[in-house]
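Section: Multi-chain targets

For targets with more than one molecule, the full set of components is provided together so that the structure can be written out for the assembly as a whole rather than chain by chain. Components appear in the order listed by the source. The example entry contains two components.
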Amino acid sequence: QQQVKQSPQSLIVQKGGISIINCAYENTAFDYFPWYQQFPGKGPALLIAIRPDVSEKKEGRFTISFNKSAKQFSLHIMDSQPGDSATYFCAASNRQSGANNLFFGTGTRLTVIP
Amino acid sequence: GAVVSQHPSWVICKSGTSVKIECRSLDFQATTMFWYRQFPKQSLMLMATSNEGSKATYEQGVEKDKFLINHASLTLSTLTVTSAHPEDSSFYICSAKQGIDEQFFGPGTRLTVL
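Its structure, encoded as tokens over all components, is:
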């Protein structure tokens, strides 16, 4: 059972455009929602993360929007650049649980065309 | 962020041999390390969680006798793929964390079994 659902599977955006990736979860015990960026042949790197006590977090061109009641969160990449072309994974975890495992979405392959 | 290294970055071996992959936290003490497996264009699949000095906890469907995990110190965990077969070919990624803090991912190890 997929604990975190992610869409779209792939996304093509023009340079300068906005990339939007969406995720949804069911487990209300999740209290930490990170986004990871992964380039081919590399491990995932933490991009930005949010906790459920805030509805939005912005770091540079990257913004997470969080809707607790809908159990949804999304990543917005403003002014998308070709260097942003990568696979993006959302994830969720219950940091208070003993295991604190990350549950990953299925990934979105972003291509930013010049 | 903290740095996690993996060695080797890639390995090719013959069917039936065993392969050891090392995961090190370079600038922090990792109370917990995680091992993931990733097939091409797919998400990360958690294989096992290991705490220093104790036996690893394997996810359902992961053979513990096939994938031996040793977390001998607070900075080193190893994954040994025993009697490797072509179906074990994959990208193996470790991550490490201290307490309930962030998980930091290694760069991954590409295993190809001929």
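Chain A has no helices and eleven strands.
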